[in-house]
Design a protein that fits this description.
Elements lengths: L1 H26 L4 H34 L7 H12 L17
Length: 101
């Protein structure tokens, strides 16, 4: 009888340790859920980095087209029209009302 009681205590303690480690393996600081969240954040950061690299390349191309002695007049015209609302003499502006306000 004494051996059965002692054995059940040992099994109970082992089950508690097992439950403790399972809980921390799932929900702990380095657990499975944290690892999955970290992977998602990493994927988002990688996507953001890709977008920023593309934008940087676009800006570097624009800078190259605006360097002295290397002006791309079509690009300069595009900037003047889009950013500064430049209109060449003789051109007319037609304002359209946006639909779906």
């Amino acid at each position: 009888m004494h051996d059965v009681s002692r054995m059940s205590r040992v099994i109970c303690i082992l089950l508690l340790f097992f439950a403790y480690f399972c809980y921390h393996a799932t929900y702990g600081d380095k657990g499975l859920l944290t690892m999955m969240e970290t992977k998602e954040k990493f994927a988002e950061a990688r996507d953001t980095l890709s977008i920023l690299k593309r934008r940087r390349m676009e800006l570097e191309r624009e800078i190259a087209m605006l360097q002295p002695g290397n002006y791309d007049m079509d690009f300069v015209d595009e900037i003047a029209r889009k950013r500064f609302f430049y209109i060449a003499p003789g051109e007319k502006v037609i304002l359209l009302e946006r639909s779906g306000k």
